[in-house]
Amino acid sequence: MYKQCLEKPLQLIQMTLAALWIYQGLIPKILFQSNAEINIWQAMGVELDMAKICVALSGLVEIMFGCTFLIWQRTGLIHQLNILGLTGLLLLIMITDPLQLTTAFNPMVMNIAMMVLSIVAIQLLKLRNSQL
């Protein structure tokens, strides 16, 4: 019974993280390439045309990563990778374009919220596994 109570919040977290990663890969990187995303690649020394390709490719990787939350719903590893990746992306923004952190709904807000979801998921997975 207790184990079943943990399933719905875990599924909600998995679906939310999947949707956020898929959205972030599809909308600002593939369908409507964000100037901010292009600028990050250019700040790393990539030419404009190649920067646009890199943005699209990073969007594809984000979509694939989002799908992993739908496929592997019983493992904390994907959440550990999420926390690590989001921390790395946040550090990248701090280095390449720190002014992005001053805007509304900036990467700091999104990344921390997504990291906290993964922290909660890891805690729920440990609780569920201890109830077996």
TrEMBL record:
<dbReference type="Pfam" id="PF13781">
    <property type="entry name" value="DoxX_3"/>
</dbReference>
<feature type="transmembrane region" description="Helical">
    <location>
        <begin position="78"/>
        <end position="96"/>
    </location>
</feature>
<keyword id="KW-0472">Membrane</keyword>
<feature type="transmembrane region" description="Helical">
    <location>
        <begin position="108"/>
        <end position="125"/>
    </location>
</feature>
<keyword id="KW-0812">Transmembrane</keyword>
<keyword id="KW-1133">Transmembrane helix</keyword>
<protein>
    <submittedName>
        <fullName>DoxX-like family protein</fullName>
    </submittedName>
</protein>
<dbReference type="InterPro" id="IPR025695">
    <property type="entry name" value="DoxX-like"/>
</dbReference>
<feature type="transmembrane region" description="Helical">
    <location>
        <begin position="53"/>
        <end position="72"/>
    </location>
</feature>
<feature type="transmembrane region" description="Helical">
    <location>
        <begin position="12"/>
        <end position="32"/>
    </location>
</feature>
